[in-house]
Fold this protein.
Amino acid sequence: MVSDAADGTDARPDTTDGTDARPDASDAAGSSLVDRWTALDRGWQALALGLGIVAAHLVGQAL
């Protein structure tokens, strides 16, 4: 099974001086979490989301 991000391409364009060309709004505190989440294979994303839903349900049942 091959990850969606395994091809090594990066959707974020870089400038010639090596800095990231993204706007400053995307450099917020949560952007690294978003980058790591989108780098995951869809199967791992589905597993993590499913486990989170089950955990939330169990917490709700315990309360």
User: Anything to note?
Assistant: The mean pLDDT is 75. Helices lie at 31-39, 42-62. The CA atoms of residues 8 and 39 lie 11 Å apart. DSSP finds two helices and no strands in the chain.
